[in-house]
């Protein structure tokens, strides 16, 4: 019979809990996506002016700050309540975002080298 050390048992438990958490989050997001904007209809005038921030995340990866009416004006379904996470499928591709990050880092390095008199 194989013996398990305490570390391998702890790792197995942590992996199990991680898989369980991810599964519950996926199930919750699919349930929320069905009913997030169920009671809303497209506003008569677009764009809307809101006085209270109520962000929702559209399926296009864009955060709509005025909530469901704002997303409906854009013709987008709402994926979840709250802000969209970074890298959640916005308008730009991942290689484009990586190139932008490299460009920003390069500009910072160039600025610091000019300030320190390296160039």
Structure description:
- With 119 residues, the chain is mostly helical.
- It folds into 2 domains: 6-91, no CATH class; 92-119.
- 50% of the residues lie in helices and 8% in strands.
- It contains 3 helices and 3 strands; from the N terminus they run H-E-E-H-E-H.
- It has helices spanning 6-35, 68-74, 94-115; strands spanning 56-58, 63-64, 78-81.
- The chain has a 3-stranded antiparallel β-sheet with strand order 2-1-3.
- It is flat.
- It starts with 5 loop residues before the first helix and ends with a helix.
- Residues 29-33 have low confidence and may be disordered.
- Residues 1-24 form the signal peptide.
- Keywords: Membrane, Signal, Transmembrane, Transmembrane helix.
Overall helicity:
40-55%
Number of strands: 3
Q: What's the helix-strand series?
A: HEEHEH
- Low-confidence residue ranges: 29-33
Beta content = 5-15%
Secondary-structure-based class equals mainly alpha
Number of domains: 2
- Give the CA-based shape: flat
Separation of the first and last Cα atoms: 67 Å
């Amino acid at each position: 019979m194989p013996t398990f050390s305490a570390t391998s048992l702890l790792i197995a438990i942590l992996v199990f809990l991680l898989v369980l958490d991810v599964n519950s989050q996926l199930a919750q997001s699919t349930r929320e996506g069905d009913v997030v904007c169920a009671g809303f209809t497209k506003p008569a005038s677009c764009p809307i002016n809101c006085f209270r921030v109520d962000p929702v995340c559209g399926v296009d990866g864009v955060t709509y700050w005025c909530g469901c009416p704002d997303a409906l004006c854009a013709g987008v379904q709402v994926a979840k309540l709250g802000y969209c996470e970074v890298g959640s499928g916005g308008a730009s591709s991942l290689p484009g975002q990586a190139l932008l990050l490299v460009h920003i880092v390069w500009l910072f390095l160039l600025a610091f080298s000019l300030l320190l008199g390296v160039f």
